[in-house]
Amino acid sequence: MLRLGQKVIFVEDCLEQNLPIGGYGYIIAYDRNNDNVFDYVVRSPKDNKHYYVPASDIELEEVLLREEAERVEKEALIDYALKTKNAELFQWIMTGESPAEQAQEREKEVQSREDFIKQIGLKAWI
């Protein structure tokens, strides 16, 4: 649950209330009524209005800035990997694992013909 006075950004308008998407506001109250869909009351100083919003329509400014920084960092690493033709770095960025780890996984998955026949024989015996 977000604290009172925190700066939030409107990221969605799922209930079509004409929220200023991309604009900011401050949480001024919680809506504790269990019978409605709204979670917060947000004050938008730019519009000089109060909006009742569900939690899915707003996001903390810090979270959005962190996500944007991670995205920019990933794009910069991809550009660097492509410019230097570093395939290992590119694979690591795109999949999260190095090519050596991928090769080991593929080796584990592939069975020889004899091992397969042994497994079938053991299962048939049981």
Could you give a quick summary of the protein structure above?
The protein has helices at residues 61-84, 87-95, 99-109, 113-125; strands at residues 7-10, 24-30, 40-44, 49-53, 58-60.
Question: If you had to describe this structure to a student in words, what would you say it looks like?
Answer:
The protein contains four helices and five strands, in the order E-E-E-E-E-H-H-H-H. It has helices spanning 61-84, 87-95, 99-109, 113-125, and strands at 7-10, 24-30, 40-44, 49-53, 58-60. The protein has a five-stranded antiparallel beta sheet with strand order 4-3-2-1-5. The model has no long low-confidence stretch (mean pLDDT 86).
